Amino acid sequence: MPLSLPPLNALRAFEAAARTGSYVAAAEELHVSPAAVSQHVRNLEEFLGRQLFRRFNNRVLLTDAGQVVFAGASDALQSVSTLTEQLMSGGTKPRLVISVITSVAERWLEPRLAAFALSEKALRIERRVEGAPVDFARHNIDLRVCYGTNQYSEMNTIRLRQDEVLPLCSPAYLERNQRAATLGMDGVPDDDLIHTSWGPSFVSHPTWHAWFAKSGIDRPNNNKGYQIGTSGLALDLARDGVGVVLGQKMLASEDLAAGRLVPLSSIAIELGHPYCLVHPRSKARKAGLQSLIDWLMKEPV
Questions:
Q1: Pairing of strands 275-279, 262-263
Q2: For residue 152, how many C-alpha atoms fall within 13 Å in the half-sphere facing its CB?
Q3: How buried is 71 (Cβ within 10 angstroms: 0-12 exposed, 13-18 middle, 19+ buried)?
Q4: What is the pLDDT of residues 171-204, one digit of tens each?
Q5: Average pLDDT of 109-118?
Q6: What's the CA gap between 12 and 251, in Å, rounded?
């Protein structure tokens, strides 16, 4: 029995428009004009006898019929894409493309990806370290590790971790600074504080000023010390024994487990937003993706 198929170019244009919410964005992805995308969608609607979109200015919203078609089309097109990728690569392992923000890449994600790769040898994993925002479609990204829940509202967003910061230093620092070893943070001079410069795009980041206020320690001059550009470099400085960092527990997990860093206090401040895993809805059934998500979700901090 012959297959009952809609016009495939029309289906592809509809899927892109539904996923991006815009004919213009779909046109950019498919390298055609918005008018061509609109015509493809009209052809598909005529073929199916259903209205698939409601149009509002430059945006499109799925009707009930459109939601049904989109769910099936996304899965079908992803399966065809995966098969095509495997055939064109000579039958090599299926590939997962993981995009991650810089601060999380080496200190948290890398050891977990390495362990996952060893457990899932049928997969090939490509890692991209990059700032936000990213173009999922252009770079064929399957999964993004990002900070905050509202960066990619059109995609599936899974809350990963709500990280927190607390005072961390190396055992070597405590050996050199007996007052800190005895008194804790009361024994740490202002000049030994390591401050992380989060940059102008962050307004909810924790500071030493906030930590001292929470702990009840009166330290009016706590802007003294070292100003470091990234969380990872600030942790490196503390691990080298230079001073005490208000460090992220999630990013310092390997150093804490190995004893290279130790907490000087149990008082912690949560970050303003959680870390999240984000993936396009059309990728939900891609081989290995859910296994990777489950792996990252179960890993202890």
A1: unpaired
A2: 26
A3: middle
A4: 999 999 999 999 999 999 999 999 988 655 555 6
A5: 89
A6: 40
